[in-house]
Amino acid sequence: MTGDDKKRATLDFGDLPTTPAPAVDPKAVKEATRAAGFRETPKAAAPATPASTGRRTRRRTGRTEQFATRLRAETLEAIYAYADRHEITLAETIERAMSALVDAESRA
Predict the structure, then answer these.
(1) CA distances, 27 to each of 23, 32, 86 (Å)
(2) In sequence order, what are the residues at sequence separation of 6 or more whose Cβ sits closer than 8 angstroms to the Cβ of residue 82?
(3) Residue 42 maps to a domain
(4) Is residue 83 in a domain?
(5) Is residue 17 part of a domain?
(6) 5-56, pLDDT tens digit by residue?
(7) What is the tally of structural domains in the chain?
(8) What b/e sequence results for 1-14 when a residue is b if at least 16 CB atoms lie within 10 Å of its CB, and e otherwise?
């Protein structure tokens, strides 16, 4: 079939009646579904804001190495809170923490 053909292929199971199903009015279907309490699916979802998803937006930072670990909930919340207050990425938050640790170690 080419893209111009509007006719669908039919399946022959042999034991089914061969009379085609009557045409259905799309408007009648829409009215019946609304009457049954169904809602129409939105065409496009509203874009999620970074604050509502809890995730930071992506931007190019030049960081290519991956680091994954498990943290206590309070530690993770502290990292997120710091990053949000300073409007920096989580990677920048970890880099600042490491810098502070190295500085404190060198002074001791």
Answers:
(1) 12, 9, 53
(2) 93
(3) no
(4) yes
(5) no
(6) 678 877 777 776 667 778 888 898 888 888 998 887 777 766 655 555 566 5
(7) 1
(8) eeeeeeeeeeeeee
The number of beta carbons lying within 10 Å of the beta carbon of residue 93 is 19
How far apart CA 104 and CA 108 sit, in angstroms, is 6
DSSP character string of 20-70: PPPP--HHHHHHHHHHTT--PPPSSPPPPPHHHHS-PPP---S--------
For residue 75, is it within any domain?
yes
* 90 burial via Cβ count (<10 Å: 0-12, 13-18, 19+): middle
**Residue 92 is part of which domain span?**
63-107
Threshold 0.85, pTM exceeds: no
DSSP per-residue string spanning 75-105: HHHHHHHHHHHHT--HHHHHHHHHHHHHHHH
